[in-house]
Amino acid sequence: MTVLIFKNLIRTKETSILFVMACFMLILPIVNLFNSDFMRISGEPESVSFLDFLAGEFDVQNMLILPMVVMAYLVVTAIYTPVATGRMFLYKDLSRTTIINAKVLALLGIYTIYVALQVAVTFGLYYLYIVRFDYASGLFLPASDASAAADVISIAGVVFGELLTIMVAVALATRFSTGIIMFGSILWICLCATLPQLAGARYAVPGGYGTLLPSLGLPVTLLLMLALSTVYAAGLYAYARRRFSRLEY
Predict the structure, then answer these.
(1) Nearest Cα residue to 114 out of 23, 6, 22
(2) Superkingdom of this entry's organism (predicted)?
């Protein structure tokens, strides 16, 4: 059933828009033609590795917010709309748990392709275009282990935050209408961007753990981010499954 739902989702306009957004950095060569400060990259000579560039790309996508707004709307399409329109009656003989699991896995599959496309586009852009500039080192990893660790934590913070955005939308979609689903998802995105700046609340979201990197090191910091994200995801999934099992259709 997961494959069937995945095939249906990947044909939607929302998925097409999401995949186009994954290629957002391809506008960089065009922007540079106009000598604009928008998306301008600079640095010391040979200081920007591919991993540095990739971490920057993930930050840009995260600040845009739009990809996750589209992803939240895809959750609406997958979970809320079939229930609201009565189409879930077609699955009345299937286990509710099987249905919600298939929908969540299909959504995560779409997100995985989105991330993979981001990485592939960024890799191609870096080695076909960025390496021409003097600030690019041409190396896959930064020369400094500390810089590499910071890049990994930065990327992980974005990915964990986005995965939780999907789960927040899934949980809301089992109870509320489209407006509340979108509002709740955007609110979570804003919290992920804001809380890391607040000393008393930064550890409430995965992106806030970067400050612990110098003292705890990469493995422990990454483990803490994973543990927090797992707790959140498990709670949201349990709520979504319980609510979905009670839906009338």
Answers:
(1) 22
(2) Bacteria
